[in-house]
Amino acid sequence: MSVPLLKIGAVLSTMAMVTNWMSQTLPSLVGLNGTTISRAGTSERIVSALYPSPEEGWQIYSSAQDADGKCICTVVAPAQNMCNRDPRSRQLRQLMEKVQNITQSMEVLDLRTYRDLQYVRDTENLMKTVDGKLKTASENARSLNPKSFQELKDKVTQLLPLLPVLEQYKADARMILRLREEVRNLSLVLMAIQEEMGAYDYEELRQRVLLLETRLHSCMQKLGCGKLTGVSNPITVRASGSRFGSWMTDTMIPSSDNRVWSMDGYFKGRRVLEYRTMNDFMKGQNFVQHLLPHPWAGTGHVVYNGSLYYNKYQSNIIIKYHFRSRSILVQRSLSGAGYNNTFPYSWGGSSDIDLMADENGLWAVYTTIPNAGNIVISRLEPQSLEVLQTWDTGFPKRSAGESFMICGTLYVTNSHLAGAKIYFAYYTNTSTYEYTDIPFHNQYSHISMMDYNPRERVLFTWNNGHQVLYNVTLFQVIKTSED
């Protein structure tokens, strides 16, 4: 979970991510919609899910109510030779999988809370220190002149709203501990049921799982957008391919799609490798090949909602290729955009058009001649590829090593080589910019692709034939239910 206001959010530890991938189960919130379901409606769906046909399980022949309003049902158990096909076993496996997913998500939240706690404590101590200085100044007004006294007082007034926010964080941290304990208890119950099938109320179990999912979803919803303040040490996932390339997972939120795609090279390539899971990608196994109808240019590709968006070779045309149907759904020219190394990043590689996605949708980063080679940002409509809005950042693209979007903000690195740092940020929500100084370790000294994935909350990079991840730290404001 994230820390309110001055909370550092989205810091996923290396250990947590690698453990999840090695178990082939990335944390997922699919289906955690928090909807309150009536008991009657739930019962109907449970019956439908558990007993799909008379041959596979228990048969409910009739139902009625007695004079006191109690439910009366006539039920016939399945034949003995059908017990091994009882759908309750399948339902139990599904419940166990949900518990595993919830547990992994809770571990991530718990780790974030632990790492951010010290920062919050430091903030609280700082506020108390400033408040103490103000009291001292109030008792001895001669120690400060009127102007500096008023400035100090204004700063303290701005800090005072942090107190209830810090209290909310402490409550959130306690809630995480309680949720983790409940999940552990539920796991024990499910294991006991696995030994003695039919000895527990399946409806009650399902309701408890749904309740936990709802509460977890409410907690995860607080992990909103924020301002980038730090990048972790690199996590090398694999070493494969040539010096240039790109790799990615689906950036759509939410998504249960755990596939990984790899595209080696920066021009005239058509072969896309699709791996079933991150673990398969790490081992280089269980993959299928897509042969694109048209070759690509650069490494600025992105997968969004099951489709690959890429720049067609020797053109400023963007193509939307659907993986399931293996077909082009739409293609459109990005008007005025340079291509074929007219306005690339500092490393070249036909990187004129960079497509990316964040919490706000699909984006294109490029340049035009009227913009004098400065970076242009356009938000795209994913279905039609129509440009919805455009911003001129004023930053020369040839001076940028790479760029990526987080929460509607474009972050630009000053180089693709060793010693690079995140040097520039452009905020589309206010059409303003600032120069930043956020270092990161360029371990293999030549980055040819760097994209943020809002679902994973990490940076994907292709670094000199190595596929590398970076965790990010976001400064974010958390709204409580009372706001």
UniProtKB/TrEMBL annotation:
Location (main, coarse): secreted
Cross-referenced InterPro entries: Noelin_dom, Olfac-like_dom, Olfactomedin-like_domain
The keyword Isomerase is annotated on this UniProt entry: no
Subcellular location: Secreted; Synapse
UniProt signal peptide: 1-16
Cellular component terms per the entry's GO annotation: extracellular space; synapse
PROSITE patterns: OLF
Statement: the UniProt record of this protein carries the keyword Flavoprotein: no
Intrachain disulfide bonds: 225-407
Entry keywords, A to Z: Coiled coil, Disulfide bond, Glycoprotein, Secreted, Signal, Synapse
Pfam families membership: Noelin-1, OLF
Biological-process GO terms, alphabetical: signal transduction
Start and end residues of each Olfactomedin-like domain: 224-476
Protein known as: Noelin-2-like
Organism for this UniProt entry: Cyprinus carpio
